Each structure stands twice: as structure tokens, then as C-alpha cells.
Amino acid sequence: MGKTQWYLFDYxxxxxxxxxxxxxxxxxDAAGAQLMDPGSPYWQHRLxxxxxxxxxxxxxxxxxxxxxxxxxxxxxxxxxANQWSHFNLETLxxxxxxxxxxxxxxLLSNMPAPMVARFExxxxxxxxxKRYFSSALQLVKPQREIFDHVLRDLGAEPHEVxxxxxxxxxxxxxxxxxxDALLHQPGIDxxxxxxxxx
Length: 198
Known about the structure:
Elements: E1 6-9, H1 21-31, H2 41-44, H3 46-50, H4 56-64, H5 70-83, H6 89-100, E2 105-109, H7 113-119, E3 130-133, H8 134-137, H9 144-154, E4 161-165, H10 168-176, E5 180-183, H11 190-195
Parallel strand pairs: 1-2, 1-4, 2-3, 4-5
């Protein structure tokens, strides 16, 4: 097994924490629909939005169950980005430590284009030499093709990449390719887990 050449991080629930109940209420008030439940239209149509297969207007119209204007979608996109902007300070500390050691860092996130645009100038993006977003690639985790693309672009063998993600299905997909993958769970000591023998 070769030494890690790249650390590849997910965004949501790794760099960011979960939205608060207040966040969901604000978004639901603006949308006029119940969204927080895992079976809600927010989640049912999310992968297509993340993959760039649906525009904001198309996505939020499906979520709300009615046609929405571009000005309304701009508000919904803003509230949506805001609720995924609560940072996991422990992860940021790990990114800072890795960066200070000269580690090569990359990001791989299922993220819709409007959110990507809102985060483009965010300070946390500066940690990453490479950033891969599903909406730009029109691929989503856990599709094998998105991992293949990342490996090709990094010029890395699977065993040279350590991947951190909160979704077991994404971890399993990465491990099938031979990527060293670590499941990020609430309360995890990420620094210890990253450098512990696995």
C-alpha cells in the first residue's frame, strides 16, 4: 500500500454540520411546504438537482408542488445554502493541520450549482487544491464514474487517496475501487481516525 497522496473530503456533514430546526423552519416558511422529513420532495429530487439535471426553477417547483418564479428560487437557494453553512470546527482544525503540513487536499461534494456559486469565495475553499462538484460533472456520489473522474484528474492510484464522507453508501463505493475511505460520524475524532492504522 502506498502512502496517502491526497486527502479527499466531502462537504455536507463533514465540513458543515446539519441544518438546525430553525433553518428548516425558515426554508419551509419560504417554500410553503414540509421539507425536513427524509421522504419529502426536497430529498426525493435532490440528486437530480445535485447532478445539474434540474435547474433551480425546476427543482423548487417540484419541491413546492407549484410553479415558482426565479426571484423566489433565488430566496430558496440562499436559505438552502445558509442552512448548510454551519461549520464543523473540528474538521476545519484538521484541514488547517493538514494544510500546514503541506498535505494535498481535494473536495468532492454532491452540491447543486446555485450553492456552488454561493460558496465559491468562501474561506474554507482555500484549503483545497482541487474541488469537484456533482453539478459541474453531472455525476453524483456514489456513482463509480465520479470517483473514476477524480482519480484521473488527481493522477492518483486509489490506494493513494484517503476519502472522508458521512454516507455509508459513498464510503462503500469508494472502497470498492480501493480508495482508503473513512466514515465521518457525529462526535468522531477525525484527526485520530485519519492517522490511525486501518
